[in-house]
Design a protein that fits this description.
The chain has helices spanning 48-65, 69-87; strands at residues 3-8, 14-18, 37-40. It has 92 residues and is α+β, with helices and mostly antiparallel strands. Bound molecules: zinc ion (ZN).
């Protein structure tokens, strides 16, 4: 669900506008009803699912480009193991 962030040019009020597929009306400032708005880019505009999807896509692309992917994975796993052993000694 895309949430767009706007800043009202008239009064400076910042608000989020949820753009539904059924929404036909232009967003207006909830404070002064002005439609003179600045659309702001929001890092929170994407849902977690969309971000995850994008990351999986990116990871797959990287995997396809990486010939020594498995070696890297093994090296990383070894590194994590060492790291964990170093900072988290096994408990009895
Ligand atoms: Zn306003």
């Amino acid at each position: 669900m895309p949430i767009h962030e706007y800043e009202c040019k008239a009064c400076g009020h910042q608000f989020e506008f949820l753009l539904l597929p059924t929404t036909t009306a232009a967003p207006a400032c909830p404070e002064c009803q002005s439609q003179d708005l600045d659309k702001r880019l929001s890092g929170f505009a994407l849902s977690t699912a969309e971000i995850t999807k994008a990351r999986v896509k990116q990871a797959r692309k990287a995997l396809a480009q990486s010939k020594d992917y498995k070696d890297k994975q093994v090296a990383e796993a070894e590194h994590i193991k060492e790291h964990v052993a170093e900072y988290m000694p096994p408990r009895d």
